[in-house]
Amino acid sequence: MMAKEETVNEPKDLVEPTPEEMKKMEKEEKTAEKMIEKVEEKEDEKMVKEAEEEPKKKTFAEIRKEREKKEQEEKLVSWVPKTQIGKDVKAGKEKDIDEILDGRKRILEPEIVDTLLKLETDLVLIGQAKGKFGGGKRRAWRQTQKKTKEGNILTFSAMAIVGDKKGHVGVGYGKAKETLPAREKSLRTAKLNLIRVRRGCAHFDCSCDEPHTVPYEVNGKSGSVKIRLTPAPQGTGLVVGDEVKKVLKLAGIKDVYGTTKGHVRTTFNLVKATINALTKTTKLEK
Fold this sequence. Notes:
- The chain is an alpha+beta fold.
- The chain has helices at 19-53, 60-77, 84-91, 97-102, 110-116, 179-192, 242-251, 267-279, and strands spanning 120-123, 142-147, 152-163, 168-176, 195-196, 218-222, 225-231, 238-239, 256-261.
- Among the domains are: 63-116, no CATH class; 218-279, Ribosomal Protein S5, domain 2 (2-Layer Sandwich).
């Protein structure tokens, strides 16, 4: 039974809506749903924009890198060169560090290297191992003591590596009464001891043109430690110890075979022997 239309004189008794009212209600529901969808889309867009605009939380390592980068830029801006090479670099006359190294000109200011190259740094684990009987992980700081009448005087030493992964690497050693000054000294000396490393593709199983390994077999020595670096095909990786890997990675060498002899646990001499071997890549001995 269909419901009758309601009039002023004869109000309807049934609660059921008329077909026209049903259509109106459906239209109103559809329009309301569309309005709700539009509002939800706008809210979602606002949430996405706010999430993009909000600065991402940075880790402590990222904050430290940014702070060091700003400090380095400020140092370079306020740098007053004292040597002739430094003045030429500051004025823009010297733009290639290979010319300085090939000309055997001595670098006496670390700002020269900072201006011409984008360097990455790392520390060598030369310190003592913590734990009973030296079973713990080795540290980057070597701690020594001096006995005096007033008591024990502590000194810390560190060994740093710098490189641009494009054929330039340097190693430095620093010593101070605290850890951070020792690291700064080691980084400074590493920049002053920068060398050029010749790279190539010399293995018989590899025929690529990319410089990814040493050009030929080289040997290095420091103290009782001897190391031999042999060319390897592409994809082999660095078949050497962890501390030697740090030097080779910053030098830009990706594939190499290595063999060592002597007291290899003395990482100080192991790294120096590696640098001694890398210097021979640009010097052909008769």
